[in-house]
Amino acid sequence: MDLLKRYKGDDFDESFNFDDAEIGEFEESSSSKPFLVKAIAMMLAVTGIAYGANIALTTAQGGKTEFGQGFVTAAACDTQDGITVIPQAGFINETGTAGASGRFTLDTVYLENIDKACVGDDFIIQVYGETGTALTLTESETALNSGNYLQFDAVRFSYVDSNTVVLTDTRQYADVYILTDTSSSTEFDSNQGSIQIVFDADRLISMADASLLRRITIQTVKTGS
After folding, report:
1. How far apart are CA 63 and CA 75, in angstroms?
2. Domain ranges in the chain?
3. What is the rounded distance in angstroms from the CA atom of residue 28 to the CA atom of residue 173?
4. Residue 155 and residue 172: Cα distance in Å, rounded?
5. pLDDT tens string 169-196
């Protein structure tokens, strides 16, 4: 697949120096969420540089990985070589609120090399800091324009078939996409399926702070369980 095309966001400013955050600036652009401006970090796998700070995650084997790098985790449905998990951080510049400031948050998680045997299962994504309490990933407004929100510390979706993934709780401000090349059956039949999960909360408070994140867990259960 063309990783550069897949991971490069439209709002990314290649001139921004992430090593010196004090001199970098982000410009607001039109958005359905006027108080949040996203500048998506380029993937380490593409650039060779860990944009968005050197934040280490603990892998299941006790090793370390940084944002943009992939680590392999086991899943009940995956009997081959495990699922590669690639976290991506994005910078959110919250404006319009007294005392508000921006920060790097968990923007996206990519799942690579998924077995086709996982079709018919639900995936449950959670993230943790140093403690055993899961961090908030996203939210949902209880009613349109109410200003009242529910927060979620897990995102669950169903892997329906090679072309379809569906959020089990459609209230959540999150999106799930199939990235598997479906122009031929090669990737799917070779147990190389790919899925992207995007966390898209309205408010900064409901996004996982990348500086706190230490562990990502993936659980799989049969759909309907």
Report:
1. 18
2. 3-222
3. 21
4. 8
5. 999 999 999 999 877 768 998 999 999 9
